[in-house]
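Hey, sorry to bother you again with one of my protein questions. I've been staring at a protein lately and its backbone has me curious. I owe you a coffee for this, so here goes:
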Amino acid sequence: MPMDGQELSWIEYLKTVDAPTLSNAIELLKVRPRREGFTPLQVRALFPDFGRMCGYAVTAQVETVTESDEGEISRFIDLQRAVEQSKKPAVIALQEIGGYPDYAAHCGEVMATIFKRLGAVGLVSDCAVRDVPEVRALGFHYFARGSVVSHASFRIVRAGVAVQVCGLVIRPGDLLHGDENGLLLVPKDVEETPSRGRCGSVAGGPFNGMGSQRRLFDGSLA
């Protein structure tokens, strides 16, 4: 699904802002409690040299080691269809609902390749990933707790539902931003500000002359 020019410019602008500065600006806007909206230290960028990741969440709950049911291939198709139909760029967000999460790998080279071809730029997991060198070569972001070697009995349980990644609730369509400092969720009130005239100027762009919000991002507390 193509993005219109305003959405693309908003994403591209956010990619010029590091995560701590963006977090500071969101705090100044007072749209949520300061203790909310970001992941803990366990979730980290495995490829910090890629720079900032920014995109719209496509979510699923998964089960990797334990086997509550036999699993259905149609659920993989549901997730892939959700990625295809989502706003772009997309970011996959997966929550493990089975046991033994420290053994759970949620993505590897094959899935990352499929997701990227469908318009995703990265994946967020509350567990592990694998095929790290191969996925690095794809230029696909990984935000996870680490890596393990086996995909075990990985299956999609349900797609397109709210998930919780180490305490951060992520819903389909939520805007995620992450870099080497961590991952945060951009509140919808902030995301929608360009259309309401609250977003600040970007030279030559659609935000030019639209108020003071840009100064919050550019001048927020260190």
Remarks:
- The chain has one domain: 5-219.
